[in-house]
Amino acid sequence: MNSKSSYSDYEDFDDCGLYIGNTNKIYICNSAKLKNIYPLIYDPENLVLAQYKAQKGKGRRTEIDRFNENIIELLDNLWEMLKDETYTPGEYRIKTIYEPKERVIMIAPFYPDRIVHHCIINVLGQFWTHIFIENAYACIKNRGIHKCMEDVNKALMSNRSGTEYCLKIDIHKFYDNVDHKALKSIIRHTIADAQLLRLLDKIIDSNGKDKGLPIGNYTSQYFANLYLSYFDHWMKEEMRTKYYFRYMDDIVVLSYSKDALHEILDKMGLYLGAELKLEIKDNWQIFPVDSRGIDYVGFKQNHYNILLRKGILMRFYKKLSRIQKRYNISNETDIKHLFPSEYGWIVRCSEAHRKFILNKCINNGDKNIKYRTTV
């Protein structure tokens, strides 16, 4: 293979074959705390898989093209950097995005940083995922927004009296306030490999501060979930909160009474402040589920209906109006093919709301479509 060959052409990389089945046990280290696994990070097979994942779906970009022109030499250099522990995170590029709200993201260089991030998650991702409770959803394979919505709905349908009231909170500037010292301590609960810990510490401290995770790093998604993972276990196992759902820092708790939720809120605030140096936003809510509906992960639902959040539906209608000027949309199949992502959201709504949306799409042509609530 010459220096211009690109490993990105190969797609037969499902996993590194590191784990014993679908468990959190790594073949070469079956102990409760991970030890002596650092060589897996810079294993050549892992480096090849990591660069493939790092550039998958990114298209033609200058920094990726430069990497692929010298892929063999650069991967050899990265192998040496990781083996000798000389790797140092590069300088971030700062970018402001506005979807769905204004955020400042920090973009690491493709080489070597984003490849290193994938090297780490290839080895530790499955191990860390087994630490998360089943009702944590963000950035976790086979979960996500729709699974979260479905689990909330299942709770509402299975126990109406026990889910009469909702507590809804999120954490004040969560990513910006992750305390590095506390995060490192959490990681050390399950990892005792000194070399691996030094690498993880470099990534955590790469923003040059003593707190905050760069929004944009692949590793930040896992670090953020890890940071709240023991809080999740405390909520489920110590507080015995039956109906607890967390999508990153957005949390919903369901209960039979307002008083019970106020007590839970007070204890949550104490734990988050004392253990994790975090604060609950002042806009927390405790309310009857059926009178207001739970506006969460893109849906608004109660014991009777599941609706799409108004903002999501209106963005879909605007997109629909543009597409209808070029294509004739005459049936549900057309919508499914032209808007596969949006269709996936629509079909999860209650039947009446779903039919209302689809009928509007089919019958209105390019007319202005108004939002209407069916609750």
Folded structure, characterized:
The chain has 15 helices and nine strands. It has 375 residues and is an alpha+beta fold. A hairpin with a 2-residue loop joins strand 7 (294-296) and strand 8 (299-301). The longest helix has 21 residues, at 218-238. The protein is globular and about 60 Å long. It starts with 37 loop residues before the first helix and ends in a 12-residue tail after the last helix. Mean pLDDT is 91; it is low at 1-16 and 365-369.
Keywords:
single chain; 375 residues; alpha+beta; four-stranded antiparallel sheet; 9 strands
The spatial strand order of the largest sheet comes to 4-5-3-6
Fraction of residues in helix:
40-55%
Termini distance?
62 Å
Shape: globular
Helix-strand pattern, N to C?
HHHHEEHHEHHHEEHEHEEEHHHH
Number of strands: 9
Q: What radius of gyration results from the CA coordinates?
A: 23 Å
Residue stretches low in confidence (pLDDT < 50, at least 5 long) are 1-16, 365-369
Helix-and-strand structural type: alpha+beta
Would you kindly provide a brief summary of this structure?
47% of the residues lie in helices and 11% in strands. The protein contains 15 helices and nine strands.
Topology:
Layout lengths: L37 H4 L2 H12 L6 H8 L1 H13 L9 E5 L5 E5 L2 H20 L15 H14 L6 E6 L9 H8 L6 H11 L13 H21 L4 E5 L2 E6 L2 H19 L8 E4 H4 L1 E3 L2 E3 L4 E3 L1 H15 L7 H7 L1 H7 L4 H13 L12
Antiparallel strand pairs: 1-2, 3-5, 3-6, 4-5, 7-8, 8-9
